[in-house]
């Protein structure tokens, strides 16, 4: 009696292939089908470049899952992706050995990843599918390590927030009243707004900007004043660590 098909969701880490976990690299090697969510097949390149040392092509099938860079994609979109995944993992004939899939994500899969919405649909589509998650090194852990910034110490509080949503002076001020360190993900086009707010809170000097960390084109900027007009790429973040303050 064949066992159920398995989908392993692999956190690839921030970009440097050396930062994949050993468990993640083993799951990559074992996969029959590798699913890469990306806006277009061309843009699946980043995840594949990270995974490349552990792929076994052409034995493995690589499939791009179209994932437009838009908030609030309709559930029907995720349902279609779930159907594609199930279809590729289902054994044919039904008595054959079930296939193993790997779903690739940058950083950690459960931190603002695309998998959450797909997972919901997978459960509806095929409740027998086994899903395993392999955590990954987050972008901000890699930035902190590269720049030597303590994320949190002793009783410090750390907040990780998406800058793209509800970025205003009052909520950001409140954030810094409660947290010693704040990591803003999904900075992209709102970077100039974020810098303006940090200026108003007198925090720009304690902020650091990082893009494409772990990748050949990585860039870290400590003086955010030169980024006031900058159109930041999607893979960018701002880390602010307040000096000498205790969280309240
Ligand atoms: C959809 S979230 C995914 C976060 C990811 N799962 C993680 O663990 O870091 C994408 C955001 O993560 C951040 N990010 C991911 N990889 C990055 C990198 N290599 N360099 C800088 N920021 C990155 C950016 O803020 C980007 O907008």
Hetero groups bound? S-adenosylmethionine
Give the termini distance in whole angstroms.
Answer: 58 Å
The fraction of residues in strands falls at 15-25%
Radius of gyration: 20 Å
Number of domains: 2
> Averaging pLDDT over every residue, what do you get?
92
Weakly predicted, low-confidence segments: none
Outline the biggest β-sheet.
5 strands, parallel
Structural class: alpha/beta
Percent helix, as a range, is 25-40%
CATH superfamily of the largest domain: Tetrapyrrole methylase, N-terminal domain
The succession of helices and strands, N to C, reads EHEHEHEHEHEHEHEEE
The CATH topology of the largest domain comes to Cobalt-precorrin-4 Transmethylase, domain 1
What is the secondary structure topology, with strand pairs?
Blueprint (H helix, E strand, L loop, with lengths): L5 E6 L10 H9 L2 E6 L6 H7 L9 E6 L8 H15 L10 E6 L9 H11 L4 E5 L4 H9 L10 E5 L6 H10 L2 E5 L5 H10 L6 E5 L7 E3 L14 E6 L7
Parallel strand pairs: 1-4, 1-5, 2-3, 2-4, 6-7
Antiparallel strand pairs: 7-10, 8-9, 8-10
Helix pairs in contact: 3-4
The chain binds S-adenosylmethionine.
S-adenosylmethionine binds next to strand 8 and strand 10.
Commentary on this structure:
The protein is an alpha/beta fold and 248 residues long. The protein has 2 domains: 6-134, Cobalt-precorrin-4 Transmethylase, domain 1 (3-Layer(aba) Sandwich); 139-241, 2-Layer Sandwich (Methyltransferase, Cobalt-precorrin-4 Transmethylase, Domain 2). The protein is built from 7 helices and 10 strands. It has helices at residues 22-30, 45-51, 75-89, 115-125, 139-147, 169-178, 191-200; strands at residues 6-11, 33-38, 61-66, 100-105, 130-134, 158-162, 181-185, 207-211, 219-221, 236-241. The strands form 2 sheets. It has a 5-stranded parallel β-sheet, sandwiched between helices. It has a 5-stranded mixed β-sheet with strand order 6-7-10-8-9, with helices on one face. The radius of gyration is 20 Å and the shape is elongated. It binds S-adenosylmethionine. S-adenosylmethionine binds at residues 14-15, 106-108, 111-113, 138-139, 185-187, 210-215, 234-237.
């Amino acid at each position: 009696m064949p066992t159920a098909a398995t989908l392993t969701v692999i956190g690839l880490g921030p970009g440097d292939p050396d930062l994949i976990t050993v468990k993640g690299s083993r799951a990559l090697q074992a996969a029959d089908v590798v699913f890469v969510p990306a806006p277009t097949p061309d843009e699946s390149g980043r995840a594949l470049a990270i995974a490349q040392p552990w792929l076994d092509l052409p034995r493995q099938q690589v499939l791009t899952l179209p994932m437009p860079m838009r908030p609030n994609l309709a559930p029907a979109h995720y349902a279609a992706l779930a159907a594609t995944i199930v279809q590729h993992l289902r054994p044919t004939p039904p008595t054959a050995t079930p296939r193993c899939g790997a779903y690739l994500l940058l950083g950690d899969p459960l931190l603002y990843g695309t998998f959450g919405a797909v997972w919901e649909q997978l459960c509806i589509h095929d409740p027998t599918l086994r899903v395993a998650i392999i955590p990954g090194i987050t972008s901000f852990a890699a930035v902190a390590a590269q720049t030597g910034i303590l994320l949190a110490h002793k009783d410090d509080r750390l907040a990780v927030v998406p800058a793209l949503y509800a970025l205003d002076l009052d909520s950001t001020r409140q954030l810094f009243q409660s947290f010693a360190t704040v990591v803003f993900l999904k900075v992209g086009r709102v970077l100039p707004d974020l810098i303006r707010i940090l200026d108003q809170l007198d925090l720009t000097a304690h902020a650091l900007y990082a893009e494409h960390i772990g990748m050949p084109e990585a860039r870290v900027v400590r003086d955010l004043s030169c980024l006031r007009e900058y159109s930041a790429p999607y893979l960018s973040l701002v880390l602010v660590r307040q000096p000498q303050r205790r969280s309240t």
